[in-house]
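Hey, can you fold this?
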Amino acid sequence: MVSNPALGVLFHWLGGLASASFYVPYRGVKGWAWETYWLVGGIFSWILAPWVLAGLMTKDLFAVLSEAPAKAVFWAFFFGLLWGIGGLTFGLTMRYLGMSLGMAVVLGLCAAFGTLMPPIFAGTFFTQVLCTSSGRVIVVGIVVCLLGIAVAGLAGLAKERTVTLEQQRESIKEFSLKKGLAVATLSGVMSACFAYGLAAGSPIKVLTLRHGTATLWQGLPVLVVVLVGGFTTNFVWCVILNVRNRTGHQYLTPAEPNSVAGTTPMLSNYLFCALAGVTWYFQFFFYTMGETQMGRYGFSSWTLHMASIIIFSTLWGIGLREWKGSGAHAMRLLALSLVLLIGSTVVVGYGNYLAIAH
């Protein structure tokens, strides 16, 4: 299969749109604690969608996973466990910072660690990246992306100085800058482990190709393993919170009609969680497709993924009025960050094109 960076960028943008959009359906959930709707959505994100789509789109899924080297399966699962911590705290970041600022902080750290560490550990960063013209172009694109993320963060800080606490909590009910930044830092660093898990699962890709899977779908079996690890972490923590907060009954029992919260709409809650969960999964469904199109610099896919997520999450934040009353300075910074992020995807895509052309 011939690589096509332009198509790869498109796939990554679709994945970014899915990632930036997944949290929106959760806003329709009523009467459930965070741990309840996060776990219900996670079952669709990390278990049902990955297994169903991998089973449909790849060949001999169970045989491939059983034949895969134990080392590859273990490390893909292990990094999934660590990523699960990032994904878990990512949900908390959205609660405390909102979509725009929360995405910027988390994904800035995630982009830096997730993009650069795999080729550095593989020993190819200096020999195959910095020592080639196409590789240097990609590095420039990565730097532009990180700059765009930093500017997005500055826009969020400018907004925080301008908007009153009452206005912040009008769109973000549990807004807390200090708590949110602390959680976002942990989330960003740990979320980068997803990239490590995908890299560790490379032998699984080789096996599924041997079994006749099309090149475009080769990453789906690896997703199954990584996401089982992520589910494990999130399941344990959500159950702990269910027990601690006495919210476990919410999965089956609606609130009493006379309670303060009113009657819990059980069916719509499950449907909103299912929509959120499947939408979340599609970010990596498209990510693995995009990665197959980027040629030998597949690691640059992580930068494209992060940039596109922030672009679309910023647009969602504007649409949901999270930036209402932020002031002209904050909005100018926000516009500049979008220009930089879009530019970074063009530069990274061009660097991959140069690698193929030569």
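Oh, and this one too while you're at it.
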Amino acid sequence: MMRGGHYPTLDLIFTTGNTVTEGSVYGGGSDVNTSSVVVQLNMPLYSGGKTSSLLRQSIEKRNSVREERDDKQRSVERSAHEAYYRISEAIVQVDALEQSLHAQESRLKATSAGYRSGQNSLIEVLNVEQNLSDARQSLIKARYDYVLNVLRLKYTAGALQEDDLDAINSWLIR
């Protein structure tokens, strides 16, 4: 802080010098070495408010930096909580969509058998196939959301590694 501007200062000053004079018509030259030690006391009486102004400015700057740091910390915490919540939500959704997919596959088998036996129309079979396709798309999107939120959580926590990205790339290649 700048509070030191209000206090007296005590300085110790040491100086050395060397003066060489050349000789004249009346006498010889001289070589004089000098040393001095000075103790100097400075007592600020009034500096026009400059020191007080600089002190207030530095205090406000410190407070601003603290608030900015706290805002960033809260933002990171909020992002981590949100990613964790979304991961939990995605796990439940993936499980539910897998069950829905199995149900749609069973329904398609039953509807196809009904079509072969003449109980169901082709439109009914096509509707079930459309529902099955929608269920597959929803499951793929839920898995994608899960992976994306795991990456977000690891990134927010500062734990994202290149190995994590390599694993995801290997999943995508399959």
